[in-house]
């Protein structure tokens, strides 16, 4: 784990200042007066979904950079939701994922650049580019709470408690259903870390004042405190996902 953090720190320390500079000495300035841009985006990734915002500036005809803000929800592909066959009057037995310890989300704040590989001709088309963004990633774990039943045969009564899921105490024989999400908010755990995401971008907007782009890429998050989503599975220091992102926004002049 320490090696992964060392590699990422070395990357940010040596390469980010380089890529932040203009690519190619003496490159021709962009012809468009729209050098500022912003967009919001939605992401579908291999383990969930996310939303974000990017604010940037185009430096040359080939290069632009910006700040990237993103929130994503992460789930394991092995998660399977089900319901117990037990029913109690007046209490809904909400579905739950057996073995799920935590709900997990990621907050990313980073900086990066996009290098334009191919610009669209004046009559239209698609601009293609390569992007690389990185920065701080904070994982947020919210424990799962359940409705748990206890049967007392001496007086034939059933007691129902709200408890944090514990695989050593709770099983399908005494779990009634999922408790409200708010029950876990007091037990939130944070996972500080770093992230990188890279891939190809395709801008197909026919209007120079608008951003309409599709990204296809990979993201890597490395955490100092490991993440455990499910019981009976190893804790994870590194999460890797593939993603597809749609951007929609505006390009502005320096006077807007």
* Sheet/helix structural class: mainly beta
Number of strands: 13
Estimate the global geometry from the Cα principal axes. Answer: elongated
Under the CATH scheme, which class of the domain at 34-80 and 99-143 and 185-252? Mainly Beta
> What name is given to the CATH topology of the domain at 34-80 and 99-143 and 185-252?
Porin
- Proportion of helical residues: under 10%
Strand content: over 45%
Rg over C-alpha atoms, rounded to the nearest angstrom: 24 Å
Strand and helix map with partners:
Elements: H1 2-14, H2 16-19, E1 36-45, E2 48-58, E3 63-74, E4 81-82, E5 96-97, E6 102-118, E7 127-143, E8 145-152, E9 157-164, E10 175-178, E11 189-203, E12 210-227, E13 236-252
Antiparallel strand pairs: 1-2, 1-13, 2-3, 3-6, 4-5, 6-7, 7-11, 8-9, 8-10, 11-12, 12-13
Protein traits:
Porin; 8-stranded antiparallel barrel; mainly beta; 3-stranded antiparallel sheet; 256 residues
What's the short story on this structure?
This protein is mainly beta and 256 residues long. Helices cover 7% and strands 55% of the residues. The chain is elongated.
């Amino acid at each position: 784990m320490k090696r992964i953090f060392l590699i990422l720190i070395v990357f940010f320390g040596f390469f980010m200042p380089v890529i932040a500079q203009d690519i190619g000495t003496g490159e021709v300035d962009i012809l468009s007066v729209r050098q500022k841009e912003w967009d919001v985006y939605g992401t579908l990734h291999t383990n969930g979904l996310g939303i974000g915002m990017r604010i940037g500036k185009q430096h040359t005809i080939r290069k632009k950079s910006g700040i990237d803000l993103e929130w994503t929800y992460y789930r394991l592909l092995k998660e399977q939701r089900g319901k117990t066959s037990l029913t109690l009057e007046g209490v809904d037995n909400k579905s739950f994922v057996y073995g799920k310890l935590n709900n997990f989300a990621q907050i990313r704040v980073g900086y990066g650049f996009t290098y334009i590989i191919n610009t669209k001709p004046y009559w239209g088309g698609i601009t293609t580019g390569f992007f690389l963004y990185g920065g701080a990633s904070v994982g947020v774990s919210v424990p799962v709470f359940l409705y748990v039943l206890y049967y007392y045969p001496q007086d034939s009564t059933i007691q129902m408690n709200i408890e944090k899921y514990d695989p050593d105490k709770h099983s399908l024989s005494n779990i009634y259903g999922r408790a409200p999400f708010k029950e876990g908010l007091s037990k939130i755990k944070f996972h500080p870390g770093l992230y990188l995401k890279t891939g190809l971008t395709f801008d197909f907007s026919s209007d120079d004042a608008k951003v309409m782009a599709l990204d296809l890429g990979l993201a890597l998050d490395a955490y100092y405190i490991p993440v455990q989503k499910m019981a009976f599975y190893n804790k994870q220091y590194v999460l890797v996902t593939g993603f597809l992102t749609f951007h929609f926004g505006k390009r502005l002049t320096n006077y807007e």
